[in-house]
Design a protein that fits this description.
alpha+beta; 7 strands; about 10% strand; about 475 residues; 15 helices; about 60% helix; two-stranded antiparallel sheet
């Protein structure tokens, strides 16, 4: 239990460290904490920690309850403690595996968020990453614990203490049965089965098999594919061919791919899709009531609408600011031409390609498609890398000539922003940065960079 608490505490610290870093580290003139990929990582880290903490509390409560039950039976204290521990030995083995692997996941993602800084001893996450590995080894390796869990379950089942066959047969029966599509009367009623022809806005469950000159293309085929007709994430010609079909229909849809399609294997070619429709559904949105609004932590429907509007306005303001800064920076680079070392451009290019590759992998793009995409757009990526290197070299000159510095008030405003976005106590944030000079210096550089960009925007002349 002590080692489990240690892994849980370590995971929480790694998450707090990563949140603080993401809130201050900027790319493309905004904190990386605002990027969806980083938010996804932080959310997954928090989910793993919540799950690990939940099973700890539940197991502790079960052990405590068992101790009370044994004491009530008049058992001696030693026998009581031993009996409770033996009863939940399997769960304790699970805790060891869950805690150590949750910590491994959290610190690994923490290093990923920190990027290259994650390997620097100046950042706490590097130590967390190094120290986390031992937890999967001592007190019984995770592999041994997994074997013990299975062995203990089977022994208890053979002794009749655990009913494994009953639930197993029930699951098998459910898997082999045909589910009933009853009416959904929940608070959202998000989807309802309909007996109708497909049209835009409907949701369809389909099988499709793509063929090129009679040869099946595995990457263009799928079973039980869930598609919302009318969206921009699928070929328009394919979706148009689905319209008018209904459940049980089969049809061949020919799609002519554009010449510049990302997958060179089908670019400029006509693919024949054999399509089978299994189900057609439609969305039914609930009425926005005060009760529904409270599920989103709003006081009432009016309050929820106001919050959504404010959020959209803030996002629009950020996008507009970024667009203005982008235009000013491009003009700045054009008016200040300079040569940059190819080695720096190459290093930045590899960093950009790595980030894009991670994004494409999360979207389930195959390795061959990714390589084709990089090959097609390598000139654009190289130009971007060169721009970023030039900016990194020129911007410090602007900061120096304008005598821009990060004042105490700037730090306070930055810490307040971190507190607002992360939900952490501002006093804890200030303490963290006061004890980590390297991190505070990095925040200072980001503040100076931001002030320099704003100065350039303020002084820009509109043509």
């Amino acid at each position: 239990t002590e080692s489990y608490l240690a892994t849980l505490g370590g995971a929480k610290r790694a998450l707090s460290t990563s949140i603080a870093y993401a809130a201050t580290r900027e790319q493309f003139n905004m904190p990386i904490a605002k990027f969806g990929a980083i938010r996804h990582k932080l959310a997954e880290m928090a989910i793993r920690i919540f799950a690990a903490e939940s099973v700890l509390y539940r197991t502790s409560q079960m052990i405590d309850d068992k101790e009370h039950a044994l004491r009530a039976e008049g058992k001696p204290e030693a026998e009581t403690l031993l009996g409770a521990a033996e009863e939940y030995a399997i769960e304790c083995a699970m805790l060891k595996v869950i805690g150590s692997e949750a910590l491994d996941y959290v610190v690994d993602e923490g290093v990923q968020i920190h990027g290259g800084n994650g390997f620097s001893d100046e950042y706490n996450i590097s130590r967390s990453y190094r120290d986390s590995r031992i937890n999967r080894i001592f007190e019984g390796t995770n592999e041994i614990n997994r074997l013990l869990i299975l062995d203990a379950y089977l022994k208890r089942a053979m002794k009749g203490r655990i009913n494994l066959m009953g639930p197993a047969m029930a699951i098998q029966k459910e898997l082999l049965s045909i589910p009933e599509m009853g009416d959904n009367d929940g608070p959202f009623a998000a989807e309802q089965k309909v007996i109708a022809k497909i049209k835009k806005g409907h949701l369809a469950v389909i099988d499709f098999e793509g063929k090129l000159n009679g040869t099946v293309l595995p990457d263009a085929s799928a079973k039980n594919f869930f598609l919302e007709v009318g969206t921009n994430n699928s070929l328009e010609e394919f979706q148009n061919g689905l319209e008018g079909m209904k459940a049980g229909d089969q049809k061949m849809i020919e799609v002519k791919y554009p010449e510049d399609y990302k997958n060179l294997e089908v670019a400029g070619k006509a693919i024949q899709y054999d399509v089978t429709v299994h189900e057609v559904k439609q969305k039914n949105y609930p009425e926005l009531t005060d009760e529904l609004a409270k599920e989103f932590q709003a006081d009432n429907a009016t309050d929820l609408k106001a919050r959504i509007r404010k959020s959209l306005e803030e996002e629009l303001a950020v996008e507009q600011k970024q667009q203005v800064q982008e235009e000013v920076l491009l003009a700045f680079l054009e008016s200040n031409p300079c040569e940059v070392p190819p080695s720096l451009v190459s290093r930045q290019l590899q960093h950009i390609l790595g980030e894009v590759a991670q994004l494409l992998k999360r979207q389930r793009f195959s390795e061959s498609v990714m390589q084709e995409y990089f090959g097609k757009h390598i000139k654009d990526f190289n130009a971007r890398a060169e721009r970023e290197v030039k900016l990194a070299l020129l911007l410090p000159k602007v900061i120096e000539e304008a005598k821009i510095t990060a004042e105490e008030g700037d730090f306070k405003a930055q810490f307040e922003e971190i507190s607002k976005s992360s939900g952490q106590d501002i006093a804890a944030i200030e303490k963290f940065y006061s004890e980590n000079k390297a991190r505070r210096d990095e925040v200072g550089k980001e503040i100076e960079r931001r002030k320099a960009l704003q100065l350039m925007v303020d002084n820009a002349k509109v043509k």
